Amino acid sequence: xxxxxxxxxxxxxxxxxxxxxxxxxxxxxxxxxxxxxxxxxxxxxxxxxxxxxxxxxxxxxxxxxxxxxxxxxxxxxxxxxxxxxxxxxxxxxxxxxxxxxxxxxxxxxxxxxxxxxxxxxxxxxxxxxxxxxxxxxxxxxxxxxxxxxxxxxxxxxxxxxxxxxxxxxxxxxxxxxxxxxxxxxxxxxxxxxxxxxxxxxxxxxxxxxxxxxxxxxxxxxxxxxxxxxxxxxxxxxxxxxxxxxxxxxxxxxxxxxxxxxxxxxxxxxxxxxxxxxxxxxxxxxxxxxxxxxxxxxxxxxxxxxxxxxxxxxxxxxxxxxxxxxxxxxxxxxxxxxxxxxxxxxxxxxxxxxxxxxxxxxxxxxxxxxxxxxxxxxxxxxxxxxxxxxxxxxxxxxxxxxxxxxxxxxxxxxxxxxxxxxxxxxxxxxxxxxxxxxxxxxxxxxxxxxxxxxxxxxxxxxxxxxxxxxxxxxxxxxxxxxx
RNA sequence: GGGGCCGUGGUCCAGUUUGGUCUAAGAUGCGCGGCUCGGGCCCGCGAGGUCCCCGGUUCGAAUCCGGGCGGCCCCA
Length: 482
Description:
- By secondary structure, the protein is α+β, with helices and mostly antiparallel strands.
- The protein has 3 domains: 5-277, BirA Bifunctional Protein, domain 2 (2-Layer Sandwich); 287-393, Anticodon-binding domain (Rossmann fold, 3-Layer(aba) Sandwich), CATH 3.40.50.800; 408-481, Translation Initiation Factor IF3 (2-Layer Sandwich), CATH 3.30.110.30.
- The protein has helices at residues 5-9, 16-26, 44-63, 77-80, 84-90, 116-126, 172-192, 238-243, 266-277, 305-321, 336-346, 356-361, 382-408, 415-423, 436-445; strands at residues 30-31, 41-42, 67-68, 74-76, 96-100, 103-111, 135-144, 159-169, 198-201, 213-219, 225-236, 246-248, 254-256, 258-265, 294-298, 326-328, 350-354, 363-368, 374-378, 409-411, 427-432, 449-454, 474-481.
- Strand 20, helix 14 (415-423) and strand 21 (427-432) form a beta-alpha-beta unit.
- The radius of gyration is 25 Å and the shape is globular.
C-alpha cells in the first residue's frame, strides 16, 4: 500500500472537525474517550506542550511580579454566594459536593468554576496596608464548569486546565494599569506561539460575571467560530466590596481595593495552535513550545548501521550542547519513511536525516516541517543553521496565521451583507450604535453575535448603525461562536 | 428549546432495509519473526469483540420493538 488510507483522510480544509479529532488522538495530544462527558485526558505529547505553554506564561507573570500560589479546588457555598452578579453568571454551571460517604455535608462545597471566591477571603487576611499592594498571584489549575452546550475536546470541557491571575490594587487607576499589563503579557505568549488574535472589549451583556468590563482575545478557527483564548477583567471594587478587601492608606484611612483577574485556557491555546498551524500531515508546532525541536532520523543502510547510529548520537550531542531540544529516533522497528510521517504528525519543526552520505561528508540533511524544504549543513555550522531554521519556521507560521486572520475579517455595510458573510463563516465588522438591543437584534437575525469592539482604539466608526440607523459609536465584531 | 443522524476488536468501518448463510468480514493498528530500511515496502505467524445498556417479540436478534445511556449534526 503505497498511498496509505491515512493520507487520503487527512483533509484539513475539507473536513476540519474530522481532521482535528484525528490529529489530537494520533499526535497524542488528548484522548477524549474518558468515560465522563466533557472530561478529557491529556496524553504525553499534549501535556508536554501544555506545560511548555503554561511555563512560558508563568515565567512572564512572575517577571511581572505575580507570585505562584495553589488554592484548593473546593469553595464553601457562603464565599461563592457573596457577589451577586458572579453567582448569577456561574450558578447554573457549578458542580456541588453535597455528601461525604453517606453523610450529607451541613455546608455544601463547590468545585471552583474560577477562583475569585476562593482567593478573596485570603486576600482579605493578606491585605492590611497600602504596603501590601499591589498584590499579584497566579495559579495553573483545573476548573470545573457544567457546560450545557456541546462539549468539544480542547475547546470546551467540563474540566479544563488554565492559568488564572488575580491582583489587588490601591485604586481603580492602578487596576487599570494592571489590565493593560495583563493584555501585554498574554500578547507576548500568543506572539511567541505564532497565533493571530483580535483584542476586543466585550459588550456589557457579555462581560465576566461580576466585572466592570472584560477584554478578550478572540481568534479565528477554520469552522468560522471564533475561539476565545484569553480574557482580562477589570473588576473595579465589585469583589472588594463583597469580600471587604480594605487597606489602610498612608493617611491612616481605610479604603477599598480594586481588583483584576485574567485567565488563559491552555486547551484552547493548543486548539488554536493545531487549527492555525496544522496541515494535512498533522501538527506544526511553534519551536518555542515544541517538546522536541529537532528529530534526528538515522538511515541505517546495510553495513552502515553502527556508523550511522554513532554519528546520529554525535549530531544529537552537538545540538544538545547548543541548547536545542533534540532527540534521536533509533527505534529499529520503524522504517525511515514511517518515522517521517510520525514526527510530522507530532509537529516537530525540524527533521535531521543522517545516513551513509552524511556520515561520510560529516553533514546533516535538514528538512523544515512547514515547507518540507531540504538543506544541508556541516557539523560545524549545525547549531547556527538549526537556530536560523527554527526562527524561520516560527516567523512563517506567525505570518501565515496573521494573513489568514486578515482574510477572515470583512466589512458589512448592511444586514444582508452581514448575513452573507456570517453564512460564509467570516468574522465581520459592522457599525454599531452601542445599544444592546441592536446587538440582540443581530443575534436574532444572523447565526453570529456581537463579540465586542476593538480594545485599543482600532478603526473609527463612520456612518449609521447597521440595525437602527442611528449614529454608530463603535465598530463591532460579529462572528459565530462555539 | 425544536428536528435529524449514529453507537460493531485500539482506530476506521462492512453486515441492520428483507431476523437464520454471523462461530461477525475487511482495512489499519498491536505482538513475534524475517527484510536489500533515503517517504507509511514486502513475506509469515499471532493476539484482540459483553455487536452501548436493560427489557420485549421470536424456535432464533448485531439486525425488529420499547426504554435508557452516550456521541455527533442542523435549526431557533
